[in-house]
Amino acid sequence: MVLEKDNEGNVVICRNTLDKVLQAWENCPNGNCKTHEDKAFIIRLYNEIYKENYRTTTNCSACLNAVYKGIKHVVEYTQNYYGKGTYPTYKKRNT
Hints:
- The chain is mainly α and 95 residues long.
- Helix content is 53%, strand content 6%.
- It is built from 3 helices and 2 strands; from the N terminus they run ββααα.
- The chain has helices at residues 15-27, 36-50, 61-82; strands spanning 3-5, 11-13.
- Helix 1 packs across helix 3 (61-82).
């Protein structure tokens, strides 16, 4: 599970997924990915986090805008709330 709630009811993203989001954001900071692989990777991350089912080959502008805004929200929230380059303490997932 990618998202879970902490004791205060806040939604938390696991560290591994957050690292992937931040890495993907470096490749597409303004929404224009240089390669199709970067675009597909960001769409897969979005689908995983938000439980959507967008195809990685989509050219639908509304779909791509939703993906961009969703990933941007995660990045901005992390940087604004926790500070750039820092991470929150995460609970370990029950496996």
